[in-house]
Amino acid sequence: MEETGSIIPEKYLSLSVEETAGRITRRRKELGHNLVILAHHYQRKELVDLSDFRGDSYGLSRRAAQQEAEFIVFCGVHFMAESADILTRDDQKIYLPNMAAGCPMAEMAQIGDVENAWEGLEEILGPNLVSPIVYVNSNAELKAFCGKRGGAVCTSSNARALIEWGLRQREKVLFFPDEHLGRNTAKRLGIAPGEIALWDPDLPLGGNTAEQIMNARIFLWKGYCHVHTWFSTEHVTAVREAYPQAKIVVHPECRQEVVDMVDGCGSTEFIVNYVSSAPKGSVVVVGTEINLVNRLASENPDKVVFELARSLCPNMFRINSRNLLWTLESLNEVNRVRVDPSLKADARVALERMLRISETRK
Fold first, then answer.
1. Full-prediction pTM beyond 0.90?
2. How far apart, in whole angstroms, are the C-alpha atoms of residue 130 and residue 217?
3. Under a CB-based contact definition with an 8 Å cutoff, are residues 139 and 82 in contact?
4. Distance in angstroms (rounded) separating the CA atoms of residues 270 and 252
5. pLDDT (tens digit, 9 = 90+) per residue, 82-107?
6. N or C: which end of the chain has fewer CB within 10 A?
């Protein structure tokens, strides 16, 4: 992965919020249509306010691919900027204001471990019996892995469609890196618990016997999002007791026992739409990243909206207005994300395959 990044100069750290915002606004005017700023839903309010578009990770990457701008700054985490670079033209440049803004879940599946798992499955099952499906919250190497092996990428909104597709192509699916999205989706598909195998990359055959591998229809990687696994059944019970009239909606990266207790479960966009379409006067309790919950509360003043529990993504929080300004004033010098060309073509195949499958299902 070719990248340029360094530590933010001290001169930016002493800037006031007002001066920083003013210089960002001036820089945006200077670059005009040649600059697009994207902000993920989990970003803090000042970054969303300074952005041209906000949304979820894949939606923003698709948005980037639709732009004519040369410079695209992604206020999110590393895998999101990679996806944008995969989908945009070669003459467009993608930036991440803080190169330390990674995703722990994405790092839970390393390419070497996934390749070992694939080899282990083929030793037991033989070739061409498993479809690899990778969650968009993953590194470029894993997207390329799926592209080369007849698999695809998925998002939290289309995981069901992609796993169904994978099972139509082959007998079984290897789903990585998020166990909980995979488990919740498998349940919606009616896949029995005995047909689900958890794959722990630190154990031989993922901790499974040959018989378990033969019987499984879906293999779930042992990975998780710490933001969403923070929510517990105790949190749900406490809200039910205190606010019996409330509706509770959570993200499918939550544990299955939490999902089973709530009123709604879906992607970030699903949650946004759930809250916005709730009747006036509703009480809606949301189990996702706190910055989004706070923004939903402020944007829906006719409802009572609050968090199931406070859960902050510290990696998203690494992006701030000062390192955004530094990036804008140092284009071509710092914080550029470039996916290796040897990975880009295969990763694009996996992403575009997802898009075709999703469009077919509409």
1. yes
2. 9
3. yes
4. 11
5. 999 999 999 999 999 999 999 999 99
6. C
